[in-house]
Write a structure and sequence with these properties.
Elements: E1 14-15, E2 41-49, H1 52-59, E3 70-72, E4 78-80, E5 95-96, E6 99-100, E7 109-112, E8 116-120, E9 123-125, E10 131-132, E11 137-141, E12 148-152, H2 156-173, E13 177-179, H3 181-184, H4 198-205
Parallel strand pairs: 1-4, 2-7, 2-13, 3-7
Antiparallel strand pairs: 3-4, 5-6, 8-9, 8-12, 9-10, 11-12
Helix pairs in contact: 2-4
Length: 209
């Protein structure tokens, strides 16, 4: 079982440094939410790219001007990029209820996934033109869109690892909710998309299953 350490990390995880700017949190992630104050939301499952190696390399690059707390590969391997007591730059312009700028109120979990796909020349490809095997694609309409598209599916090992990670974080930080970037940056982000089982994921993370 994973446990959050006092220095803002998981015991025994692979760690990679990020050069993106970060700062310590001022008020997010209190273990006991103060009366009248919003608790932290877990912002989860940004489909950053089809491989964790590429995502980790990009997030560690100062030119990216982006970061995330965790990257989870398709085989379930978890890499920590930023301590949990520091802000990571994953959500951009974002809002949830009366909170604005969700980077300051969330933990960013990036999943290796090609995201939304389109069919070109009989093949499913992502935004960069990289082909994704038909066996790893589902067709569905995003909840904020009106036309169907292809979506890269998430392997069971990756989903289970993300549940274990998020459940441990919830135990440590007492989340109020589990959200996708699509929920806090509506119209700008579509991840994790309809291929990710967000309802069951949320239930298991929050102990509602």
């Amino acid at each position: 079982m994973l446990h959050v350490s006092t220095n803002g990390g998981f015991h025994g995880l692979r760690r990679e440094g990020t050069q993106a700017p970060s700062r310590r949190r001022k008020c997010a992630f209190r273990r006991h939410t103060e009366p009248g104050r919003k608790g932290a939301a877990a912002l989860s499952d940004h489909a950053l790219g089809p491989t964790a190696a590429g995502a980790i390399s990009w997030l560690a690059n100062p030119a990216a001007k982006a970061s995330a707390h965790l990257v989870i590969d398709r085989d379930g391997t978890v890499t920590q990029m930023v301590p949990f007591d520091r802000v990571a730059w994953h959500a951009g312009k974002s809002r949830w209820q009366d909170l604005e700028g969700m980077n300051a109120y969330s933990i960013g979990i990036e999943l290796a996934n090609a995201g939304k796909l389109e069919k070109v020349g009989g093949k499913w490809v992502n935004w960069s033109g990289k082909a994704v095997p038909d066996a790893e694609v589902m067709e569905a309409t995003h909840k904020h869109e009106t036309t169907p598209a292809g979506w890269h599916t998430y392997p069971p090992a990756q989903i289970e690892a993300s549940i274990e990670v998020a459940a441990a974080l919830n135990e440590a930080y007492h989340f109020l909710d589990v959200l996708g970037h699509e929920d806090v940056s509506r119209g700008r982000k579509v991840d994790p998309g309809p291929a990710f089982p967000m309802r069951s994921f949320e239930s298991r993370v929050m102990g509602r299953a």
